[in-house]
Amino acid sequence: MSGGGTGGHIFPAIAIAQEIQKRFPQAEFLFIGANGKMEMEKVPQAGFKIIGLNIAGFDRGNILKNLRLPFKLLSSITTARKAIKEFQPDFAIGTGGFASGPALFMASNLNVPIFVQEQNSLPGKTNTFLAKKAKAVFTAYPNMDHFFPKTKTFFLGNPVRKNIITDLITKDVAKEKLGLDKNKLTILSVGGSLGSRTLNNGWKQNIEKLIEKDFQLIWQTGKLDYKSLNEDSKISYPPQIQLKEFISDMALAYSAADVIVSRAGAIAISELAMAQKPVLLVPFPFAAEDHQTKNAMTLVEKNAARMVKDTEMKEKFWTTLMEICENENLRNEMSENLKFFAKPLATERIVDEILSSLNIKA
User: Fold this and answer.
1) Domain-located, residue 317
2) pLDDT for 60
3) 242 among the known binding-site residues?
4) Is 8 annotated as a binding residue?
5) What Enzyme Commission number does this protein have (predicted)?
6) How many domains does the chain fold into?
7) Binding site annotation covers 76?
8) Which domain holds residue 296?
9) What is the distance, to the nearest Å, from the Cα of residue 302 to the centroid of all Cα atoms in its chain?
10) Residue 7 counted as an annotated binding residue
11) CATH number of the domain bearing residue 220
């Protein structure tokens, strides 16, 4: 298994490995990641062995740093080759990120069958390159055959956390558990574990309007801004606004929401599709190749979401949000359209397809 750099690459890889492990308890796994990246911590936490490559991406901010890239790439290919020859895998799966390029390229060269899982609607360069050698490519969005070979591309969805699927409950019960009024419209705002300053500033600028509307807000601020927002003497938050640094039970928060405001990372969108709640997406503009905007636009084009760009927050955030909040018919239509992207059995079907293509029976 190889994938990393961000949770969006790591957690699908772990989910696929866990599904294989469930079917083959004696199976052995080797993850290949990038030294210094979060997979080196998250993969062992999930109970799997990982080795690290000294690989990095192209640094647009410091061109001189890229002089070392050819040497890092050569070193990574050599390390990957040695590890794969020693481990002798039956197959290899790449989920994107720096390390999966050398790892799966080398696996393919050693005649190991390779598979690619792409989370975004705009594929990363690594997966686009590897797809040429892959036995199959699994995507989270439809109509990806203009990036990948049509005959081996399967729209199966992104693997997501199992509890997001199993722990969703009715809206009224969820609101009650969170101490919220079940009769008031509730907005959930999520900006990732670190939070989103763009979203936090958007709420700061419009908090008085929200209070006037008597709407409820579950506001996940992230680590960076929680303390300053919590201690801001200029803002007095009534009980209907719940400030949270981190939300551990996302299924409960999704369940309680009438409307969700979120960034547009691939895994976030896959979870939102499971929750099937109308959503306003504010894509992170500095994601690689602006893929979050592409993810968001795929939903917008099917009327499954609305989008506001970072640069449009002051002018459009509140008006677009109110367009959703004050139109129940629109909310119902968006929820219905989100079902198209909901793939609760994505992990199982990816593993089914891998085993079928290799004629392996569980």
Assistant:
1) yes
2) 59
3) no
4) yes
5) 2.4.1.227
6) 2
7) no
8) 163-341
9) 20
10) yes
11) 3.40.50.2000
Are 181 and 327 found together in one domain? Answer: yes
For residue 61, is it within any domain?
yes
Contact between residue 265 and residue 8 where contact means Cβ atoms under 8 Å apart: yes
End-to-end CA distance of the chain: 19
> Is 158 annotated to bind ligand?
no
The pLDDT, as a whole number, for residue 61 is: 66
Tell me, yes or no, whether 201 and 118 share the same domain.
no
pLDDT for the residue numbered 59: 60
- What pLDDT does residue 186 have? 98
pLDDT at 144: 95
186 and 102 co-located in one domain: no
Spans of the chain below 50 pLDDT: none
pLDDT tens digits, one per residue of 89-106: 999 999 998 899 999 999
| C-alpha count within 13 angstroms, C-beta hemisphere, residue 61 | 2
Long-range CB pairs of 206-215, under 8 A, 24+ apart, other chains included = 206/317, 206/318, 207/235, 207/237, 207/241, 209/318, 210/241, 211/238, 211/240, 211/241, 213/325, 214/184, 214/240, 215/184, 215/185, 215/186, 215/187, 215/240, 215/325
The pair of three-digit structure tokens given for residue 191, joined into one six-digit string: 């900006």
191 among annotated binding-site residues:
no
> Is residue 140 within 8 Å of 118, Cβ to Cβ?
yes
d(CA 229, CA 247): 16
Distance of CA 229 to the CA centre of its chain: 26
